[in-house]
Structure prediction request, 129 residues.
Amino acid sequence: MPEDNPAQDPAAVSMLTAIMRCVAGRCPKCGEGKLLASFIKPVANCAVCGEALGNIRADDGPPWLTILIVGHILLPIIFTVGPHSTWPQWLSMTVWVSAALILMLLVLPRAKGFFIGVIWKNRQKIARS
Prediction:
């Protein structure tokens, strides 16, 4: 691990950069290693820079943010399309539940990355204090 590379220095990584790297599924420190080992389980350590990521607990934040985002995307569409559609009830339920599940599966890992990025950067600030 080169010490003269500013990208490897946690203090040189801004909050926005750490968040964007984690939302993209990458290590907040180097931006190259994978953040998640499986769907929403973080890796213990970055394979590229060795940063410890497995001890960062996002707890209930990612599901909360996922529900918030999916609800704000899907409910206006449902309330706009629903009253004017002539779909049978079974089709309407199938379409909206499927759309909600697909959106949740897309948003949840990114929400987890968001929280890991924020927590990682805040721990770096505390460690420097």
Summary: Residues 89-128 form the longest helix (40 residues). The chain has three helices and no strands. Residues 6-128 form one domain. Residues 78 and 84 are 10 Å apart (CA to CA).
